User: Fold these one by one.
Assistant:
Number 1:
Amino acid sequence: MMRPSQRAPGQLRNIEIIRRYTRHAEGSVLVKFGDTHVLCTASIDEKVPGFLKGKNQGWLTAEYGMLPRSTGTRMDREAARGKQTGRTQEIQRLIGRSLRAVVNLDLLGERTIQLDCDVIQADGGTRTASITGAFVALHDAVDVLLQKQLIATSPIRDFVAAISVGVYKGTPVLDLDYLEDSDCDTDMNVVMTGSGGFVEIQGTAEGEPFARTEMNAMLDLADSGIRQLIAYQKAALGLA
Amino acid sequence: MMRPSQRAPGQLRNIEIIRRYTRHAEGSVLVKFGDTHVLCTASIDEKVPGFLKGKNQGWLTAEYGMLPRSTGTRMDREAARGKQTGRTQEIQRLIGRSLRAVVNLDLLGERTIQLDCDVIQADGGTRTASITGAFVALHDAVDVLLQKQLIATSPIRDFVAAISVGVYKGTPVLDLDYLEDSDCDTDMNVVMTGSGGFVEIQGTAEGEPFARTEMNAMLDLADSGIRQLIAYQKAALGLA
Amino acid sequence: MMRPSQRAPGQLRNIEIIRRYTRHAEGSVLVKFGDTHVLCTASIDEKVPGFLKGKNQGWLTAEYGMLPRSTGTRMDREAARGKQTGRTQEIQRLIGRSLRAVVNLDLLGERTIQLDCDVIQADGGTRTASITGAFVALHDAVDVLLQKQLIATSPIRDFVAAISVGVYKGTPVLDLDYLEDSDCDTDMNVVMTGSGGFVEIQGTAEGEPFARTEMNAMLDLADSGIRQLIAYQKAALGLA
Amino acid sequence: MMRPSQRAPGQLRNIEIIRRYTRHAEGSVLVKFGDTHVLCTASIDEKVPGFLKGKNQGWLTAEYGMLPRSTGTRMDREAARGKQTGRTQEIQRLIGRSLRAVVNLDLLGERTIQLDCDVIQADGGTRTASITGAFVALHDAVDVLLQKQLIATSPIRDFVAAISVGVYKGTPVLDLDYLEDSDCDTDMNVVMTGSGGFVEIQGTAEGEPFARTEMNAMLDLADSGIRQLIAYQKAALGLA
Amino acid sequence: MMRPSQRAPGQLRNIEIIRRYTRHAEGSVLVKFGDTHVLCTASIDEKVPGFLKGKNQGWLTAEYGMLPRSTGTRMDREAARGKQTGRTQEIQRLIGRSLRAVVNLDLLGERTIQLDCDVIQADGGTRTASITGAFVALHDAVDVLLQKQLIATSPIRDFVAAISVGVYKGTPVLDLDYLEDSDCDTDMNVVMTGSGGFVEIQGTAEGEPFARTEMNAMLDLADSGIRQLIAYQKAALGLA
Amino acid sequence: MMRPSQRAPGQLRNIEIIRRYTRHAEGSVLVKFGDTHVLCTASIDEKVPGFLKGKNQGWLTAEYGMLPRSTGTRMDREAARGKQTGRTQEIQRLIGRSLRAVVNLDLLGERTIQLDCDVIQADGGTRTASITGAFVALHDAVDVLLQKQLIATSPIRDFVAAISVGVYKGTPVLDLDYLEDSDCDTDMNVVMTGSGGFVEIQGTAEGEPFARTEMNAMLDLADSGIRQLIAYQKAALGLA
C-alpha cells in the first residue's frame, strides 16, 4: 500500500504553528497541517452568556468557518445563504468541547474566551488542525489575562490536540489529507490531552463497517500523532 | 456503585418496539428504551435529491425532532424559533449515516426513503433509540416496496442498532438514562451492525478524559447491548 | 346521502381523551377524534411575556405542529424549512384565543401556561381536537398550581370545546373526517363554552357560497356536538 | 348606546373607491372605509405556481401589508424583521380565498393574478376594506385581459365584498372603526357575494362569549352592509 | 439631444410636497418628483437604541420600501421573501446618514425619530425624493416636539435635499426619470444642505467611465437642482 | 497637521500584492494596504445566473466578508447571525460593479467569475483594498481561461483600482487608515480605471458637509493614488 501523499502510515504531514499571525486578537495562530491552513484566533470578552451570569465562572466557545474558495470547488458562503450547515455546527461544537475539557472555567473569572477557526485553505483534517491551533491561541490569550493580572492562575489544566486516523485500502493511516480521506473506508477523529486521556473519539465507517482490531490500530496511531502535535505546540509556545 | 436506575452495569432498560403505530407511513414504529419514547416513521418518496438525479440510485435521509415538552423543562419549538439547533442537526446526520451504512442505495431505485424520528418523551438515549427504531421502520418500508414489486431485491444488507455506554462514578455502564447521563464522566454512542462491525463511535469526556482501558470496557458493553437490541428488532419483525 | 364514514349526519367520531399520556408535562393529554390523534401538553412557566411584566396577571398561549408523516403524504418539517406556515400560525392563534376565553388571567398570577398541540396522526379536524384536548391538559396544569398552593382559586371559568361542521353533498354534517372535508362545500369550525356561548366561528365556502339556512343547520349540529364533547371532557376529568 | 363614531348601529362609514390610483398595475384601487385607506393593486403574471403547471388553469393569490406608520403607534416593518406576522398571513389567506370564491380559475388561462393590499392608513376594518377594494382591482385587471383578447370570457362569476360587524356595549353594530373595535365584545368579519351567499364568516368573542341571537342580529347587519358595498363597487366600475 | 421626458437638461420634473398626508404620524409627507411618489412619515419613539442608552443624546434612523406594484413589473414583497435586498438597505442607510447630517442629536433628547419612506409609485429617483420628502416630515415631527415643549431648541441645523444627475447620450442632465436612468451612462445621486455643502455624492458609471469634466458639469446641475428643491421644501413648510 | 500614521497627505500606505496565495482558486491574491490584509480569490463557474441563461454572455459577481477578529473588537460572525449586514452588502455590490465596469461580459462566454474578498486583518480601507486586489485575482482567472483556450480574447478592457480619500483635520489626505478614518470629517472612496475614468465615487460627510474645493482636492489625491496602485498591479502581474 502506498499513500497518495507518499507518507508512511504513521507519518504526520508537515506541521507549522505560527503565533501572532494577525495583530488584533489576544491569540492569533496560523496552523498548517500540510496544505490545510487554518487561522485560529482567541478573543477575550468581559461577559458571559446569560445562563452563566452571576455564577462566578467563565465560558469558552468556538466558531468555525471555511472561506468559500478554501476548497477545490467553491462552496456557498454561509453568511450569504443565511445559515451554517450542520457540518459547520458539528465541528464548532466539537472544538468548543475539546478545549473546555482542559480549561478550569472557575479560574477564568466571569469572562468568555471566543475561539474562531477560519479555514484559509483546505486539504482534509480542518477540524483537527483547528483544535490543535486553537489551543495555542487560547494559551496566548490566557497569557494576556495573566500579564494584565486579570487572573492569578492559569485555568489551562493540560495540553490538548487532535488528529485524524483512518483505514486506507486496508491499512490504518495517520493524518489523512483530502485525497486519502475521499477514498478511505473509515475516518476517525481523536482528541487527546497531554497526559494521554481521550477527550473525543468520533469514528465513522464511510464504506464497510470497521472491526475492533482496526479500531485498536487506529488508536495506536492517534496516540503517537497526538504526542508529536503536542511537542509542536510546546515548541511554538517556547515551552519545549 | 449503584446506578440511579438500579440496573446492573450491563443491563439495558426495558425495550419495546411497536410496529404500525400510526397508519399513514410506509413504516411506523414506536420504540421505547425505558421512559424514552420515539416515534420513527419511514416515508417513500419517488424522487431523489438533485445531486443524484439520473444516477439510477436511491437515497436515504433522516430528520429528528423533540416535542417541546418531551423533556422535564419545556424546550423552545424549533419551528417557531426558525431554525434547528446544532444538536438536532448533529443527531439527524448521525441517524442518516448509520442507516445508509446498511443499505445498498443502488438496489433502491431512484427514490428516497425519509426517516423521521420524533421524540414523544425523553429520558436519555434519544439518538440511540431513534437509530434502533428507525431501522425497523425502514425494514417495513422496504417490505412495502417489495410487495408492490417496485424493487426485486431488498437493499438492506444487515441489521443496525445503537446504544449508549458511559463511565458512571468510575464504572462502565450500558444504556444511560437521563439521570445517569447528567452525572457521568464519559458518554459514548456506538452504532454497530448485525455482523458486529462498527458503523459509528462517538465518545465524549464530559468531565475527566477517559483511558484506553475504560474505552475497551465500554466497547465490550456496547457489543453486548447491540446484540440484544438486534434480537429485539428481529423479534418485532417476526424474523427471530 | 351516505357519509364516507357511514356516520349519521349529526354523529361524532369515536372520542377518546387520555390523561397523563407523557410524564414530564403538568398536563398531558392524548385526544382522539377517530383517526385524528393529537398530543396536548400544558407547561407552566413562572414568567410572563415582556408586555405583561409587572401587571400582576398571567398569560396563556399555544403552539401547534404536525409530525411530518402524520398525514397521507409526508409534509416538510417546519423546523427544517425554517418557518411555520400561515396555516400553522392561524391554528395556534385560534387555540390560544379559544382557551383564553375561559380563563381569568388575573387569577393565574404572573406565570404563563403554554399549550403544545402536536398532531401524531391526522384525519381531519386537528384544530378542533387540539382545542378540546388542550382544555383538559390546561385543567390538569391548573390543578397542579392549586395543589402546590401557588394559586388559591382556579382561573378556569367554563369548559370550552370545538367541533367542525360542514355541508357535504348538500347535507349539513358534524365532525368531518379528511375524506369528507376534502369533498365538502362548506367547512366551519365552531368553538363554544360549557354554557353554550360562541367563542369562535370560522366558516369557509370551499365551493359554492352557503346560505343562511345552511348556516343555521350547521350551528345546530355544532351545538349538539360541543355538548357531547364537554361531557367527554368531564368524564375524563372525573367531574361528570 | 352612542357609538364613538356617532353613527347609527347599521350605518357604514363614508366609502370611497378610487380606480387607477397608481399607473403601473393592471388594476389599482384606493379604497376608503372612513379613515381606513388601502391601496389594492392587481398584477397579471403569465405564469402559474408549480403545483398548477400544465393544468390549463389560472391562479389568484393575495398579499397584505401595513405601512409601518399606518397606525397610531409605529409597527415594526415586516421586511426588516424578516418575517410576516401570523396576523398578516391570516389576512392575506382570507383575501385570496374570498376572491377565488367568485373566480372561475379555468377561464383565466395559465396565468396568475396577484393582489396586493397595502394599508396606507388604518382605522379598523383593514381586511374588509382590502377584500372590497381588491375585487374592483381584480375586475380592472380582468378587463385588461379581455381587451387584449387574452381571454374570451370573464372568469368573474359574481361580486364579492366584506364588512365587519360586532357587539358594542351590548348593541350589534356595523363596520367598526378602531375605537369601537378596541372596546367591543365580539368582532365578526363577513364576506358575501352579490347573490347573497356567505363566502367566509369569522367571528371572535373578545370578551364574553356571544349568543345565537346576537349572531343573527350581526348577520342581518352584515347582509345590509354588503349590499351597500356592492352598490359602491358597481358605481365605481360604471356598472350601476 | 432630446431627453425622453422632453425636459431641458437642467430642468426638474414637477415637484409636489404634500404635508399631513396621513393622520397618525408626527410628520407625514407625500412627495412627488413627477411620477415618482413616496410617502415619508416621521415617528417619534421615546427610546434610543442600546448603544446610546444613558448618553443623553437622540437618534434618527430611516427605513425604505417599495410597494410590490409601484414598478412596471411587480417585485417580490420583501416581507414575504423574509429579507430586504442589498439595494433597499443601501438606500435606507443613505437616507438616515443624509438626515443625521443636519440634525444635532444632542438637542433631540433621549428619543428616536424614525423615518419611513415607502414608494407608492416609482419612476426613477426614489431615493432622492425620499430624502427630500423625509426632511419635511422630520421638520414637522420636530415641530411637534417643540409644541409639546419636550425640547426647547430645534435640533435641525440646516435644510437638506437630494437629486440625481447623469450623463444621458453624452449630455449631463438633471433629475433622471426611469426611462432616462435605464439608458444613461452615468448616474449620480447628490445630497446637499441649504448652505451648499455636500453631504453625500454617489456616482456610478453604468456604461463608460466618466471624466472629471462630466463630473463637474453634473455637480453644477445638482447644485442648481438642490437649490430649487429646498425652495419647494420651504414653500411647503410655509417658511419661504 | 500631522497624520496619525506620520504619512504625507498624498502618501499611500505600504502596498503589497501577493499572487497565488492559496492554491485552489483560479486567482488568489493577498493584498495589503499597510495593516489591512484582504484575501481575494477568483473562481470560475461554468454557469450563469437564471436571468442570463441562453444570452451567450458571462457574469461577474463579488462577495465580501470580514473574519470575526480581523478588527480590534470581535464582530459577530455573519454566518452565525444568519444574515449579512447592510454594510457588507453595500461593499460587495460596489466590488462587483467596479470590476464589471472593465470587463466585456460578452467575451466571457456563458460562465461566471465569482470574486471573494475576505478580510484577514482590518485597518481601514478594506473595500478599496478588496477592489484593487480582486482585479489582480480576476486577471489571473482570465489567464486560466485563455490558457485552457476556453476563450480566445481577454474580456478585460482596462485596469481598475480603488482608494479612499478624506478630509482629516481640515487637510485632504490619501488612503486613510482606521485611526484617521475614525476621526475625519469626510470619507470618499474613488474607483478609477487605468485610462483615468471614474467608475464609482462615494463620498460621505461624517461631520461637517464638504465644499466643492475640498472635493476637487480629494479627487486630485485619488487620481494620483490610483495611478500608483495600478503600477503595483502591473508589477505584480509582470506587466510593468
Number 2:
Amino acid sequence: MQAALEEARLAAAEGEIPVGAVAVLGNRIIARTHNRREQAHDPCAHAEVLLLREAGAALGSWRLSGVDVYVTLEPCPMCAAALVHARIRTVVFGALDPKAGGVRSLFALCEDPRLNHRVEVISGICAESCSELLQQFFISLRETRPPDAS
Amino acid sequence: MQAALEEARLAAAEGEIPVGAVAVLGNRIIARTHNRREQAHDPCAHAEVLLLREAGAALGSWRLSGVDVYVTLEPCPMCAAALVHARIRTVVFGALDPKAGGVRSLFALCEDPRLNHRVEVISGICAESCSELLQQFFISLRETRPPDAS
C-alpha cells in the first residue's frame, strides 16, 4: 500500500484527485499507476483501469488470475467491475468512498454471486493516510479557487 | 445503430466478441470503436471504454455532456458506470445481456439516483441484428474448436 500511496501523491502533484494503485503477482509489482482523468481527457482513466491495462500488457493477457491489486480508495462501480473482468484475486483498499464506492459502500460488485468471478476484498489498510491525502487535496483546491462573489 | 453494427462486424473479423459502439454529438459521429479485449490484452478494452477515451480525446475533455452513445449490446456494469462518469446524455443499445448487463438485466447503473449523473436509456434498437451477430460469432467459435474427447 506504500507504493500505491506514492502513486497517489504523484497524482496530487499533477493536479489529479490523488488515487494510486499497484498490481502485484507473487512478490513482484507488475504495474503501478495513478488517476490521470484530467490530463488524459478520459472519463475512464481512473488508477485501476490504467493499472489493469498496464498489467495486461506486462503479462500479455487480459486474464490477470492470481494478481492482487492495492488501491488507496475504494474502487467505484466501474473499477470494481473491471477488477472482476480481469479475474483479480484480491483487492486491498485504503479509504472508504461512501458516496460512490462500488465494493462496500453503494455496491458489492467484487463479491456479486451473479457475476462470473469473485474478487476477495480487504479494506481499511492505511485508511487514515489514504483519506488524509484526499482531504488535503480538496482543501488546497478550495484555497486556490477565487472567492465566491455571492 | 447501423454504424455501431459495422463496428461490431469489424470486431468479429478480428476474432473479438462482436460489440460495436458509436458516440454522437449533434448530428456528428465523434468516435466509433469496437471491442478489442483480446488484441489489446486489456480487460477493460470493451467497445464503450475505448469509445469514451476516443470521444474525450476528440472533445478535449472527460466531460462528454450532450453526447449520445449507441452500442450493439447492453453495457456491462463497468461500461454502464463509465457512461455515468462521462456524463453521457443517452445510451441506446441493441441486444439485452441477461447474464451480465449493467443497465437493465442485473443492475440499473445508468439510472441509479445515488450516483452523481443519470443517463437516459433506450433499449432494443436493432436488437435482432445485434443479437444475431453475437450468436453467429459463438456458433463459429464452437465449430472451429476441436471436438470434445469425452
Number 3:
Amino acid sequence: MSNTKPSLPKGTRDFGPVEMARRNYILETIKDTFRLFGFEQLETPAMENLSTLTGKYGDEGDQLLFKILNSGDYLKGVTIEEVAQGSSAILPKIAEKGLRYDLTVPFARFVVMNRNELVFPFKRFQIQPVWRADRPQRGRYREFYQCDADVVGTDSLVCEAEILLMIKRVFGAFGLTDYTIKINNRKILTGLAEFIGAPGKEQELCVSIDKLDKIGWEKVKGELLDRGFVADAIDKLAPIVRREEGLNADTLGFFREILGSSIVGSMGVDELSQVLDLLEAMGGDQSHVSFDPMLARGLSYYTGAIFEVKINNVSIGSVSGGGRYDNLTGVFGLPDVSGVGFSFGVDRIYDVLLELGLFGDVAAAPVDVLITHFGQQEMNYGLGILSELRALGISAEIYPDTSKIKKQFAYADKKNIPYVIVIGSEEMNSAKVTLKNLRSGEQHTDNLNKVCEVLVQKKRSPND
Amino acid sequence: MSNTKPSLPKGTRDFGPVEMARRNYILETIKDTFRLFGFEQLETPAMENLSTLTGKYGDEGDQLLFKILNSGDYLKGVTIEEVAQGSSAILPKIAEKGLRYDLTVPFARFVVMNRNELVFPFKRFQIQPVWRADRPQRGRYREFYQCDADVVGTDSLVCEAEILLMIKRVFGAFGLTDYTIKINNRKILTGLAEFIGAPGKEQELCVSIDKLDKIGWEKVKGELLDRGFVADAIDKLAPIVRREEGLNADTLGFFREILGSSIVGSMGVDELSQVLDLLEAMGGDQSHVSFDPMLARGLSYYTGAIFEVKINNVSIGSVSGGGRYDNLTGVFGLPDVSGVGFSFGVDRIYDVLLELGLFGDVAAAPVDVLITHFGQQEMNYGLGILSELRALGISAEIYPDTSKIKKQFAYADKKNIPYVIVIGSEEMNSAKVTLKNLRSGEQHTDNLNKVCEVLVQKKRSPND
C-alpha cells in the first residue's frame, strides 16, 4: 500500500458541500423548467464503445477521447511487430471503450437503439458529466457537466420558441437581467454566401465570421482572403458585417431584402421571423432576444436555428448554446431525424452567479439548528429534542461528543448553522431550552414548542 | 465514420424517462433524510489517480479497476523489451488513472486532502456511479450507483443510532414493512473467537460465518476445520450459531454472559447495548432492528458496529450495509480517523420496490396536460393557453405539428399524460376549451379559468 500524499488527476475537481449546494440550485432550477415544458430525463453510461464515439468529433476530438484499457491481459493477441508500429496502431486492440465526450452522440445512439419504443416527438433532457483530455486551464476542465435538452422527430418551430422561453425562464429565475440570447439561422448564412457570390462556401464563411468578436473585422477579412474569398465578395460582406445592431424587426427586414433572390436565405429569414412570432404568441416578448446574423458557432451540423447566450456584464464568453440539426442519427444508420437542442453551460453559469453575488443564501444553511449541551446528561436530554425537531422537518444535529461548549459553538459557526439550542442543567430542570441565533447573537429560553415554532417559521421565511 | 448498429458496452445501461423517474424518487427520498440529519453532499471526480486506488481493494479489486489509457502517444518511453514482459509490466507506464471503484476511497482521499479546512465531525453523503470490470450478470453491472453516508472524526455511538433512524425513516418512506436491520459489533466477533479458544482468528471466523445463510452450518463447520479451528472450538461455537433468534435484550444478555471474560467482547456488547438505548432515547423503537451476533459482512476494515438490511419478503440478498471503521485514512498518511458509514443499495432497492409494486404513480405522469388541436389556427390559439398553464406551474405541452387528432391522442397516451385539452373551431369561437381525462374518458367544455382550476387541483391531490 502506498503512503504518499494523495492528489487529484489534473483537470478534475472535488465538489464540497458549499459548491454542491450551489450546483444543485442551478441544476434544480433548470430541471424545473425542463419538466414544466414536458422534457423527460435520460441518463446514459459514462463508458461508450469507441466505435460509437470515434469519428464524431473530428480528428481533434478523437485525440481528446479518454480511452479505457481492456480488462485482463489486454496485450493478448497483440504482436511485438504491431507494438513496434506505435500507439495508434494497437489502440483498437487494447481499448474498446471510451468515456462520454458530450451528451449528443450518446443521445443519438439511444434514439437509434430505442427508435421502435420511443414516442416521437421525443423531448429529453440529460445532465451528466463528460470527459475530454484537453489541456486544463482556467475555466476548462477534463471532467465537467453538460446540461442538454433536445426535441427530436419534429421540425416544428414551436420547439425553437420554447427554447427561447426556457432560457428566459431559467435566467430570470437566477436573477440575471443583463444577458442576450443571440439567435440566427444557418439558412441565412447560406443565403449570405450566395449573396456575396460565394455560394456553397458558408462553412468557410462561418468559421471566419465566428471569430469576429475575438479578432475583429480586419483580421477576419485577411482570413477570408486566405480562404479564397475574392475582394468583391468581401466588399459585399463588409457593410452587412459592420451594420449596427438594431431592432430584430429592422434587421429581419434588411435581410429579407438582400436575401430576396436566395431561396434558402429567404427561408431562413422566414423561419426566424416565425420563431419570434411564436415566442410572442406563447406569451413571451423579445426582450433579451437579439437576431445576430453573424452568429455561426462554428459548428457544421446546425441546419436551422442557431442560439447562443451571453452575459453582458461578465466577461466569460457564451454561457449556453444550441441549434437545429437535421441529421442527428444518420451516422448510426437512421436518416432524416430532425431535432433542435440546447445546452446550459453549468460551470460558466456557476462562475457568473458567483461573480454577480446571485447565489444569495443558497449554500448558507445546510442545517437549521445544532443542539449543544454541557454534559452527558444534557446530551441525553437533547436526543429527545432532536427527534422532535426532525419530525417537524427541521434539519437538526446534536453535537455527538461531550466537548467544551466553545468547541460545539465553533462547529456550528464553521458549518454556517444559524441557530444553536443550548442545554444546561437549568434548562433540564425547567423543561425548557435556550435558542440562540448565532448571526444576531440574540437568545431566549422558552418551552420546546415555542422554540420549534420559531425554527419552523424561520425555515418558511428565512429572510424575516 | 462507421455506419453500423450502435450498442452499449456490456454491463452498462441507459436509464430512460420511466427508470429515471423511479430512480430520482429513490434518491430524493434518501437525500431528504440525509439532509434532515445534517449530512452534506460531496462529489468527487470519476477518475482518480491509480496510485490512489491500487492496493485498496485487494488483488481481486485491483484486477477489477477500469484503467484509463494515458493521452497522446502512450507508448512513448516504453521499450519493446518492457512490452515483451506483458500487460502488467507496462501498465504503470501507459495508464496513470482509473475509474472510481467505490465512494469510500475517494472520500478518504478528500478528507486527507482537505483535513485543514474541514469541520469535524464531518458528515458527508455522496451519490455517484462507480465502475467495476466484473463479469456482468443478472443484478450485477459494470456501472452502478452507490449512495453513501459517513460521519468521520468522532467515535460517538450517537452516529450508529442515527444510522438506524435514517434507515427506518427511508424504508418507511418507501412503504416497506417487512424488512430487518441486522446489527452486530466486530468486537463481539473478536470476543467470540476468544471464547471458543481461537483468539485472534476472528477474521477467519468471520469469513466462514458470513456464508452461514448461503451454505448452512454443516458446510461452514467443514470450512472452519479447513481453516484450522479445532473440534473443541467448533463444539463451543455450535450452540451459539444455532441459537434461535430472540429479543435483542435476551441475545445481549446471553452474550454479555458468555463474553464476560473477554474485555473486547464485553466492550462490543456494551457498545451495541448503548446504540439500542440511544435509538430509543431518540424516539425510535427496536422494531425492524435485530441483533445478529453472526453478522460479519466479510469485510476486514470494520472495527465496531456492523449493519446490514434485508427485505424479508423479496429474495434479493442484502439491500444496504455499513459499519464503523477506525482507520479510514491511514493508508493516505492520516491515522486515527474513526468513522461510521452506511450505503443504500440503490439498484436492489429499485428492484424491490418494483417487485412489491411500491412505486405507485411515481413515473406515471411526466406531463400534466397535452394541448391538441384541429389545425394551424387552433394550434396558434393553443399557444397562449400553453403559457397560461405553465405560469400556474402545470407541466404542459402542445402537440407541435398539425397532425390528425388521433395521432395527437396516441402521443398523450404513450407518454402517460393524464389529460388533453382539445381545441377545435367551436372552442375558439366560444373562447372555451375542452378538457378530456384520458383515464376515465370523461370530458367537458368550459372556460380556461375553470379548466386550470381542475388541473391545479389534480396536481395537488392526484388521487382525488
